[in-house]
Amino acid sequence: MRRFLRLMSLAIQGKMYYRVGFLLNLLTPLVMLAGQFMLWGSLYGEREGAQVGEYARADMFSYILLAFAINSLLTWSSENVLSREIRSGMVIARRIRPVPFLLQSVAEMCGNMLLQAVVNFTVVAVVFFLFAPHLTLPVPANFGLFLLSLALAMALRMLLVSCFSLLCFFTTGHLGLTWTRTALTEFFSGALIPVALFPVWLKTVAYLLPFPLMLQVPVSIFLGQDLAISLPLTFALQGGWILVFLGLHALLYGHIRKNTTLAGG
């Protein structure tokens, strides 16, 4: 645990070293949030306040706010550190440290995520405080379940990112892999459109994948919305997918270790 916290601390220090870039990375997601509010506000305005699917205006705005906070906990830069190091060869530094390879990646992402979480959830608290009459307020009794689901969701996402990053050992670039992962995650997790609004066949496909467990599920729990499956089964699925990606990461990294040679002077 001490080594994990030390690596987190180093990630935070590295993130804050370039102050302008640090502030831009923290505040840029707010532009996306404003765009989503304007888009859905226009849509509901054209429908004269009617529901869109099962979401009333207040439900949708609350969903957008919480989805923004969760989805942008890991930013483009923090998710692609390992990918860039693999392509540049700097990954050798991770290989020679006396710390498990996956633990280094997770600690680094946790450090970056901690800073972003402070900004994101401060924004969420302020917006709920100022515009409470126009929003569906979270269910306080569900807060503990929400935190548990969120922790599992972020662990799942970090493992997904780590597995995709390892694929860079087999490619000549990382942007294609990154865009593919981002597109799949953004669409099927409910970051762009709630999964509950998908057509039935597409919703079925989405819930066969791990992506809704990373965002749609924690938000729905916190807002007291219906889940596609029971809560115990939801937590079991989150834990199950975490084990799947742990196994996949072990297989990929084991193959990489056997087929790479480190040389230095």
Report the order of strands and helices: HHHHHHHHHHHH
How much helix is in the residues? over 70%
Shape descriptor reads: globular
Structural class: mainly alpha
Strand content: under 5%
Number of strands: 0
What gap, in angstroms, lies between the N and C termini? Answer: 32 Å
- Total helical elements: 12
Mean pLDDT: 83
| Rg, Cα atoms, Å | 19 Å
Q: Which residue ranges are poorly predicted, with pLDDT under 50 across at least 5 consecutive positions?
A: none
Biggest beta sheet summary = none
Question: Which features would summarize this protein structure in a list?
Answer:
265 residues; 71% helix; mainly alpha; globular
Characterize this entry briefly:
The protein contains 12 helices and no strands. It has helices spanning 2-17, 19-46, 57-71, 76-79, 81-88, 92-96, 101-130, 143-166, 175-189, 200-207, 216-223, 231-258.
Q: Explain this structure to me?
A:
With 265 residues, the chain is mainly α. Helices cover 71% and strands 0% of the residues. It has twelve helices and no strands. The chain has helices spanning 2-17, 19-46, 57-71, 76-79, 81-88, 92-96, 101-130, 143-166, 175-189, 200-207, 216-223, 231-258. Helix 3 (57-71) packs antiparallel against helix 7 (101-130), helix 7 packs across helix 8 (143-166) and helix 8 runs antiparallel to helix 11 (216-223). It is globular and about 65 Å long. The model has no long low-confidence stretch (mean pLDDT 83).
